[in-house]
Design brief:
This protein is α/β, with parallel strands linked by helices. It contains 9 helices and 8 strands. A 6-stranded parallel beta sheet has the order 5-4-1-6-7-8, sandwiched between helices. Strands 2-3 form a two-stranded antiparallel ribbon. The radius of gyration is 19 Å and the shape is elongated.
Length: 241
Amino acid sequence: MTGGDPAQPAAVLVDALGTLIGIEPPWQRLVDLLDRRQAITITLEQAVPALRAEMAHYRTHCQQARDAASLAALRDDCAGVVADALGPPVAGLARPALTQTLLDSLRFAAYPDAAGALAGLRRRSVRVVVLSNWDISLHDVLAQAGLAGLVDGVVCSAEAGISKPAAEIFDAALAVAGVPAGRAVHVGDSYAEDVLGARAAGVEPVLLVRPAGDGGLLGSDGVAPAGDVRTISSLAQLLEP
């Protein structure tokens, strides 16, 4: 994949969660933090559905968190979902304390193949733009993961005001990349959001299906009809001829 070759993509649009960034399993960390900070005991069996409910709520509403105030409100709402799911005594905690405990239970990190792939693409003069359904904190997450300096731009749904699979958010990412749809590819781990969304915008999709257990905590779906789309298992494959 060489950006200087007119037959090859000049830009790669790339999803964040499940593609560049993984989330560490947060269940046990929430159990431990509640015990240590608030002296509240919950079981792993209670933590898993509570956090999954919070994640589902976040995915539905992350587009609303477009500035510091709305991000704080979303995080407060997410803590409320956890409180409702766990009930007393968690539900009786002061909301700021529970919100901070929830945030501290969620840890993001770059996948091992992410930095090398991004750096390799940029060495080949391929422009790289992150395109993700995420709140405005995506910029901070990419920086903390060591990836911010390896991309040419970031488009998140909260700032764009629209989410994948809508074609308009792909158009916004293409504008940042400075290339037409026919000169770009989009890489992501969701068939519904990434593959179908890219196609609606006229962008060639690449579906990333990581090994089982390597992500997907927020419900990403990598299921595609056989032969329907180019599929890779590692971002390193983007550098292959």
